């Protein structure tokens, strides 16, 4: 399947939620494809159009399915390629590339050119013997991306580049990490914390070494997030009062900043602590007690996949005023 | 080895815990696929290379937090 996706197709993975309503050529193109597919016209139980689609550059659907089963997906890919060969043999017109398009202003490209892009990895840590909820999914791991603008990169640095100089990171950095990234999404997505759910959050950096243009910093911090309220802890389950969830953690980061180029050469940040509770899509309904969880943030590569936006709503993420 | 609740978050526990959380190569085979992350760019590439598109579309990017 990996070879087939890599060699016979242009592989794409993207969030379809905005595309289901986005008012521009890209959104219209997605809907053209999706409305030929497995959920065409469906509104109940949800209007989702998620799944796997194979199609041509002019928007002709070749095959589609929504599955987690590898054999089913592989079958869809083979059916699509057979359809593709038929089109080619029939002398179908060569698909034409489209140029730029005017983006829906509600969905601008906010990729932080010249800023800091981190890849986040989260996983449960081993549980002590006798833990009330034995680990049943040790393989579970999940990812996200963290964006800071070029302007925000400076926030990580003390005013002076001398050993011992310290900086208390400002709220826009600390709250973004706490609300949108210090979350229990190990087994599936979970909503961000509301601002008031961040009970306490502090992060500081200190310069620990200077070697020419390279400045080494130690980042330390602690965050307490918790929420009580009314929500479901499994899809389509009843919402109940008195639900709880939380993540309390301590943080350590080892960073190297190149003062000449103005970029981080190393950014390794670790959060370790305890999560508890569950939400509708994070698959903790049988694993509610407090248990250890770790989150790593490291510099992202520069591939197309590494331009994937953070999972959060970017308007909230960058604390932008509503239109 | 990973950090225990009572241990300090020092150089040793930092490195060991990062190593534990970081996925092993066999867990990341799916990431070896040269995924595009933008439908419009994939459409242009498909036209230029005369290939069909295989799109994995979820409510939340499959490459991040779903």
In terms of topology, how is this protein built?
The complex is a heterodimer of chains A (323) and B (66).
Chain A: H1 2-7, E1 10-15, H2 25-34, E2 51-55, E3 61-65, H3 70-89, E4 116-124, E5 141-148, H4 150-153, E6 166-168, H5 171-180, E7 198-211, E8 214-231, E9 240-258, E10 263-277, E11 291-299, H6 314-317
Antiparallel strand pairs in A: 2-3, 4-5, 4-11, 6-7, 7-8, 8-9, 9-10, 10-11
Chain B: H1 11-21, H2 39-49, E1 53-58
Task: Jot down its keywords.
heterodimer, A: 323 residues, alpha+beta, 2 domains, eight-stranded antiparallel beta sheet, two-stranded antiparallel sheet, 6 helices, 11 strands, B: 66 residues, 2 helices, 9% strand, elongated
Task: Write up what this structure looks like.
- The complex is a heterodimer of chains A (323) and B (66).
- Chain A has 323 residues and is of the alpha+beta class.
- Chain A contains 6 helices and 11 strands.
- Chain A is globular.
- Chain B contains 2 helices and 1 strand.
- In chain B, 41% of the residues are buried.
- Classes of the chains: A alpha+beta (323), B alpha+beta (66).
- At the A-B interface, helix 1, strand 1, helix 2, strand 2 and helix 3 of A face helix 1, helix 2 and strand 1 of B.
- Strand 2 of chain A pairs antiparallel with strand 1 (53-58) of chain B.
